[in-house]
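Posted in: Protein Modeling Q&A

I'm a second-year student putting together a small comparison for a lab meeting, and my supervisor asked me to include a predicted structure for MstP. I've never done this before, so apologies if this is the wrong subforum. The sequence is pasted below exactly as I got it from our records. If anyone can share the structure token output, I'd also love a short note on what stands out.
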Amino acid sequence: MNEFVSRYDSMIQDPLIREYYGQKDFFNVGYWLSNTLSQQEACENLMDKLLAFLPEKKGTILDVACGMGATTSHLLKYYSATDIEGINISEKQLERCRVNAPGCNFTLMNAVKLEFEDDLFDNIICVEAAFHFDTRERFLQEAWRVLKPGGHLVLSDIIFETTEWLGDWMVPLKNNVKDMEEYKDVYLQARFKQVELVDTTNQCWGEYCRRRMHWLQQTFLAGKLDEPTFREIMVVFDGLLNSSVRHYLLVSAKKPLPDLL
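Accepted answer (user: helix_wrangler)
Welcome! Here is the predicted structure, written out as tokens:
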């Protein structure tokens, strides 16, 4: 856990990464439309796509693995600050959260050990993080527990072909599933109903890798990146684009009402 937090904090604060994200505090691949102009805009699109799963944006919402608070800040467009809770395992990232989403409550907490009472939240959102958790299955069981009956879980998640380019420290082997059917079954085993999976691999992961590679090429040509570093990064991104991801998914699931359990 400590290794993950240290390495992830270092990665997310890397100057080159922050420059690519326009010094904004998002850190996900986003959802790219034909007219999307920037990574930040793609990240906003992804949030809107996920929130579109919620029939009514009301009540309380838990932002799991809230990063540096950019996702939580987006929630303020629809929810009052007092109805938003964010959790993360990095205190350093939570410090940024409190700046980006003032008035929301942020707590240092592990997603697989939620320190909340049962049936507390109307909604849970988790953006591009469940594959990190040890394990995804334990997180889903906890999410089901703290959701109110009739509550919704929405998230973006990744099914990896291989973790060769990422490492087991980032994606525990126990989270590997062979296909979307096996992935969906993890939700059903956790007692979720109305599980909907939308495959957005090209619009999210594929387009992100292509755009990021183009940006790196332009950065190199502008003399802001030395050739050995440029070539090393490009090899990694080529591997990520061509071999690592099987599916990038948008997911919606519902905790059923008592008479449907």
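A couple of things worth pointing out for your meeting: The chain has a mean pLDDT of 93. Residues 159 and 194 are 20 Å apart (CA to CA).
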